[in-house]
Amino acid sequence: xxxxxxFAQYSAAYPNYIGFSYQSCLTCHYNPFGNGPxxxxxxxxxxxxxxxxxxxxxxxxxxxxxxxxxxxxxxxxNDYVKPHANYRGLYLKTGLGEETTEARWINMMANVGAVxxxxxxxxxxxxxxxxxxxxxxxxxxxxxxxxRSREHYIGYRLNKNHGxxxxxxxxxxxxxxxxxxxFSRTLTELxxxxxxxSLLYHxxxxxxxxxxxxxxxxxxxEDDIRPSGITGQIEYSLNNMxxxxxxxxTQSNSYYSKTMYSAHLRSGIxxxxxxxxxxxxxxxxxxxxxxxxxxxxxxxxxxxxSKGLFSILTFEYYKPDSEVENKIIKIGPAxxxxxxNGVELRADVYNLKSISSENYSxxxxxxxxxxxxxx
Length: 375
Prior knowledge:
The chain is mainly β.
């Protein structure tokens, strides 16, 4: 369990930017629920609104920064093909303060891909992304390839309100956060390696974002373990800085069926700062007749300290079985810095504690330092 928590895969979607009044992920991403390549507008926002500009201010205006936010810091062009690349590395040190402390560098993600736009606009496009996936530490004997398709799908926006997507993509559920070691992503099996071949319908207007997705799993997996099902999400804007959402997912394979529910809140509390919360339940029933109900809670604030620099405090709670008196609590601060466009630096310290009716585990402290680069 602990290995899964700390070595889970990472991805990149930032719903906490509701603090900048960006309510919908479609504003900056080709995927309407976030993650994957940025649109031209998303690249410009990253360069001018999110990243620190103290290093470039003496030399470049905001308009000039926006113009060179394209691939490889090139000028943004209205091209048929828009390439992209993404790397995330992690320095992980576990057991801080213990005699058995361990440290290692992990290449979490290394993706290359392109957005193909046959009409030179974003109404019709295809997304392709191929990436490196390290062998899981809890499955070191795996013979799976370390290179795989992260996503490949076609998107068609009928108009500004309706969109249709078909192909391999992430499942729509809950808050799509970059903290893919969180309980809300690992225990729900929604990390960046859990994408599925699917059909997605998306509706958006000033008040709502609604997604309904039918999926048949990852076709690279064996038939008996590949889950298929349906999932949906609805988000409602209370105002420009507050959104409420709910999700429902049901899926099954030859060994189990699973139903998940979640409710979430995204709230901007000041210019650039926000609070997010997600409460979820997972019901899993095995073909043997055994069933397990679990609960998780995710709370996080994201405070703007200065342009490009944020402090983060995360609290997580996980109860693996509703009928057993045990729970896992994780809490920790972090610092996140975008020194300039295309670079993210983040340092987290986690405290993990397992509590049961029989005993209390010792506190486990872990440091995680990330480098995220995108072109």
